[in-house]
Write a structure and sequence with these properties.
Number of helices: 11
Radius of gyration: 26 Å
Helix content: 40-55%
Distance between the termini: 61 Å
Largest sheet: 6 strands, mixed
Low-confidence stretches: none
Number of domains: 2
CATH class of the largest domain: Alpha Beta
CATH superfamily of the largest domain: Metallo-dependent phosphatases
Length: 434
């Protein structure tokens, strides 16, 4: 009877999750459809403002309609999948055999969609600013009683305004396209010095190279991953730390990941922890098997002590923890169960629990997960990014007391294959005596 009740509860929980997933996907789909209709309306207004002859305007309007429909075909499939087979809240995840064929269409769709969202968000702001400027211009240039109130409209000025409007409208799409290129081509090695209190002399100058959020899949090919592995090994580190999210959407992506990463070399070994995508895709066993074959140490809620000329370096790794209330107690249990002897380095995919790690006296926590915001809009010192809603630790080095956290921006992407103000990162960390 107890087993039956447990089974029924599991089925109901799965049903609730499926309904929530279907609802979220449909709401998201409707938002994207509304944005596309807004963009279509704006594009048609631009076309009509050109005052083209009827025989030229009509084919151009037809071309605009066809373009938007073709670009958004993936959205149609996404809506259908939301009802028929809602597997995940992602717009892609094709079988490996079809990735190369689908990749160009997926890039086009994501670049266009992000550009559309930026356009829809920026347009009201631009219009409001334009209205304010016009209001004050009219105030300053009010005609005198003896001046004519109607002036000749210069058609060349109209043409200039049309070109300016088209240029402004295309800017969000240009920014989105730049972000897609930047996500693939820019490889940034960040060099960081971390001062550690009571660091043994034998560990002074020890180097750690951190890679995170590789997201092997359609937008992270094997050749790219092999390039990252060569850069990391070329830095001649003492330790290589891999902080999770090795795959994007399926466990099938573990094999190409490991073909690329198996050449990683570090003096004292390669250590890793799992991220949320590794668990969501049920890739844990495949990753553990492949890592063991390559000689990598996957630390799943455990630690490993390394003796370096008599000094102890304590590498601790924890799985990605789900939920909100349970995460603190889960991390507490892990850190109470493992040895905290020596200089402690904690590999923890998400940085949210850094304050808790600091309370345990962890010397250095290495995390990723945020992608540095991935799409981060900066206004002076203010950074606007979706990841800001989940953590204040977006990217870089942080400190609480004598405990430090470094958040790596990651190498891959999730959702749109686009990075803006958050370039891919390989981190070269040097430990120094505080």
């Amino acid at each position: 009877m107890i087993h039956l009740q447990s089974a029924i509860a599991a089925v109901l929980a799965q049903a609730d999750r499926t309904l929530m997933l279907v609802g979220a996907r449909i709401v998201f789909s409707l938002l994207l459809v509304a944005v596309q209709l807004y963009v279509l309306r704006a594009m048609l207004r631009i076309v009509r403002s050109m005052l083209l002859p009827r025989n030229k305007e009509k084919p151009l309007i037809t071309a605009v309609l066809a373009l938007i429909v073709l670009i958004n075909l993936p959205l149609v499939f996404f809506i259908i999948e939301s009802v028929v087979r809602p597997r995940q809240l992602l717009l892609y995840g094709p079988p490996l055999a079809y990735e190369s064929m689908i990749r160009p269409f997926a890039y086009t769709f994501f670049v266009w969609t992000l550009g559309s969202l930026l356009f829809a968000a920026a347009s009201p702001i631009v219009m409001a600013c334009f209205a304010v400027i016009q209001f004050f211009r009219r105030k300053r240039t009010e005609p005198q009683d003896d001046e004519p109130t109607m002036k000749v409209f210069d058609l060349s000025r109209r043409r200039f305004l049309q070109l300016a409007l088209t240029a402004v409208a295309s800017m969000p799409f240009a920014v989105s396209a730049y972000g897609a290129v930047a996500a693939r081509t820019r490889k940034v090695v960040e060099r960081v010095i971390v001062p550690i209190s009571n660091l043994p002399p034998q560990l002074d100058g020890l180097t750690i190279v951190q890679l995170s959020d590789i997201h092997a899949g359609m937008f992270m090919r094997e050749s790219q991953m092999a390039d990252f592995a060569r850069i990391a090994s070329g830095l001649k580190p003492d330790i290589i730390a891999l902080t999770g999210d090795f795959v994007a959407t399926t466990s099938d992506q573990v094999e190409p990941l490991m073909r690329a990463m198996s050449g990683l070399e570090a003096k004292h070994g390669v250590f890793a922890c799992l991220g949320n995508h590794d668990i969501f895709t049920r890739s844990e066993d495949a990753i553990a098997h492949q890592f063991a074959a390559a000689g990598f140490k996957l630390l799943r809620n455990k630690n490993e002590l390394i003796d370096i000329d008599g000094a102890k370096l304590n590498m601790i790794g924890v799985d990605y923890f789900f939920g909100t209330r349970s995460t603190s107690s889960a991390l507490d249990q892990v850190l109470r169960a493992v040895s905290l002897e020596g200089t402690t380095i904690l590999l923890q995919h998400a940085p949210q629990l850094f304050p808790q790690a600091a309370r345990f006296g962890i010397d250095l926590t290495l995390s990723g997960h945020t992608h540095g915001g991935q799409i981060a809009l900066t206004f002076g010192d203010v950074i606007i990014a979706p990841a800001r809603f989940s953590t204040m630790f977006l990217a870089g080095l942080f400190k609480i007391g004598d405990s430090h956290l470094y958040v790596n921006r990651g190498l891959g992407t999730t959702g749109p294959p686009i990075r803006i103000n958050a370039p891919p990162e390989i981190t070269h960390i040097t430990l120094k005596t505080a």
